[in-house]
Amino acid sequence: MRILMLAQSPIAGDSRILREAAALTAAGHTVHVVGRDVPDAFLADHGELGAGASVESVSRSAGLRGSGTGPVVGHGQRGIKVLGQRMVRWLLLPEHRLRTEKQWRTAAAAKLATFEPFEVVHAHDFNTLELAAEYAGKWSAKLVYDSHELWFDRALPGRPTPLWRIRGRRFETALAQRAVVVFTVSDGIAQRLRERGLSDVRVVRNTFPRAAAPAELPDTPAGLLYAGRVGAGRDLPTVVGAARLLAPFRTLLMGSVDPNYRLDLGGVEKVPETSIDEVDRVLQESGISLVTLTNTCENHRLALPNKLFHAVRAGVPVVAADLPELRAVITKYHLGTLYEPGNAESLAAAVRAVIADYPGYVSAVRAAGDELNWDRDADQLVTAYVALAKPPANASN
């Protein structure tokens, strides 16, 4: 089938979109991705998507810019002027977020109007769903909804917007009911979507392909690594507090930093970003992976972050926030230990517990790789698409 994927995420770094497109092209489909602000280098060489894939880019505004030119990670600026500017941002962010997402949809719609019809329109996240549903209707195509997050239950910067969330959940459900299948990332989010009236919801986790060979790790870890987005909601102040308690045991931080995010690193070492595959090496050299989130929203409580499965691929135990969905997977497979979000002493104790039984946790992570891998999750995706390709049972021969 000819599949159109729509995504407002930066797809060059979105491992879920890359792997899904590659799995579908390997299964014989052709996939065209319309993404956001795709780098020229990726447009020219997007081999990660598979031989049957193509990519186009649509831009949207860069967002509200903060004041000053202070360090991205370091001590924040202070003063009445800065506080006033932050208050204005806090008030305006919800409207700005909606405006920039709408701007992308408007520009993407102009591209879609020039396309020949596709057989499937695959919407990645809610901010593409309305446009995807519109064109699936125009083309008599099948609509697929891929909910990477529990969209209207996320912790978002800016002033509270309770009415927007209530209306949004209803609108999301009404649009998603047009989809022939809904994919999401965890059992917890799948259950919430079913409770809201969606029938065929399937879990395709953000797992990684299996490593070619098991990693050789030392008997004792050398440090712990947080590899991911550096920003609000990641419980990083707790990581800083725990690093001071664990010193001289090393705590490393690697990842892209959100604009305007300020963090006093304290005893945490900032290390350069690297490719996804190279992160395996840094994880293995450190020995423990940090999977941190704040307990501030339902989306966090039901999330299974990529970095959990990246640690499994690297063969490295984890220390993770004690949130329901993370707890279920980590305890089932004995992947590591849990800490109370916001509690530096709890995080330090969880790290010490992994160190105390490190060989046992390493063995458990290796065993879990037999099940927690992309081959299994890709099969869920491809199997669903096999059903989409079949003609209706009452179709004429």
TrEMBL record:
InterPro entries: Glyco_trans_4-like_N. Pfam families: Glyco_trans_1_4 (PF13692), Glyco_trans_4_4 (PF13579). Keywords: Glycosyltransferase, Transferase. Signal peptide: none annotated. The keyword Glycosyltransferase applies. Residues 16-205 form the Glycosyltransferase subfamily 4-like N-terminal domain. The keyword Glycosyltransferase applies. This is Glycosyltransferase involved in cell wall biosynthesis. It comes from Kribbella orskensis.
